[in-house]
TrEMBL record:
Protein's organism: Absidia glauca (Pin mould)
UniProt subcellular location: Mitochondrion matrix; Nucleus; Cytoplasm
Location (main, coarse): mitochondrion
Classification lineage: Eukaryota, Fungi, Fungi incertae sedis, Mucoromycota, Mucoromycotina
EC id: 2.1.1.228
Name of encoding gene: ABSGL_01035.1 scaffold 1223
Protein name, as recorded: tRNA (guanine(37)-N1)-methyltransferase
Amino acid sequence: MLCPPIHYGMTVLNREAFKKSISVLALRTPAKKVKQIQKSMSPDMLDLPRMRNILSDSDSKETRLLLLRHDLEDVSDLSPESKTLIDDEELVVIEHTINLDYSSWSTEQILHAVIPDTIKEIPSAFTQAGHIDTFSHSLTPNPAQMNLREALYPWKHLIGQVILDKNKNITSVVNKLSNIEATFRYFQMEVLAGDTNMVTEVVYWNSRLHTEHERLVKSFKKNQLVCDVFAGVGPFAIPAAKNGVTVYANDLNPESYQWLQANKTLNKISDTKLKPYNLDGREFIRQAVKDLESAGSLDKDGWKMFDHFVMNLPDTAIGFLDAFRGLYRGKRQIYDSLDSPPKLPMVHCHCFTKSDDPAQDIAKRVEQVIGSPYDPSSSKLHWVRNVAPKKEMYCISFPLTPDMIFGPKITGKRTQDQAGSTFSSTPSANVKKPAI
């Protein structure tokens, strides 16, 4: 295989170091027969990326040079068909020098030439996040995101520069430095090469989750009320609002809140369809419920609830489920008095699990936090994706129950909790696993 010069130890890119000259055999061919002979001898023609195998002949305007395979040492090594063609056409075989440089080599070839063989995985893959844009909608290329292993850090800026050079639609290469920060849901990035502007406009905020976004959004019906607790910049909230759903959307991160508002404006969504908040998750759930009631439009029984609560913060969302305990305590009397009690809200809570039995593990954790069991017959456990070896992401969807949202019902001088709750620290035998 043809390779560039080896420069193990190079950590600052020197493009001039990748020049190389090779000698190949060439056929001096009449210009009018070039295409015909090239086609007939295609298996024996030079086949290198970014390298033409038909060149002009400096000795004559009536002929062209057809370059043969770079690994060919003598015409005797050609196929019988090619040798016969050369004899029949009386073609002259000459030597020709090809001058290769940095532009002649692929990303993988350059990186293999500078990173020692002791490091087995040479990076070349990256994620394109969108295109850099300062919200002026100027046409700019895509940033490339990498997750480099620490062993590659000595070459990280060289790697970034090579990827930038070899992908003309990219203006910057960035490297993820840490896991997602729990409070504001961001991870630190460093710019390895190119533009340092990190404001990015994307079709999907997370390309690995766009299928999950679409799945949930399609489950919401027009004119339903959705409470998006950890909305980010709006990957659930924006499409849902555009589909006619009324969304109360929240994120604690001020940057996410700012771009949620910007995305609302960009997508021409009205104030009645999307209401942004910048609060802690628990505080937001309580505030959104109050705001929904004070917004009016209660039914004849004085009833109004959200249809769905979306909790897309898989690392910690389950811990926020305690916000639903007694959330609608003041509505208990109305609920009990109705001949046909209304449907209670559905919760869609994303989470991670490393358990060999995801259904049991998630059920146990959910019920421990929320304080009572959910109804497995009307709930669903949906596998989202594999995050890491033995770490899976799921979405547990379950309806809130009266015991969860109204709090313990008074029975004489004792509450139901005092009399004996149906909740246990592990799923009981009669609690079925949600369907996956």
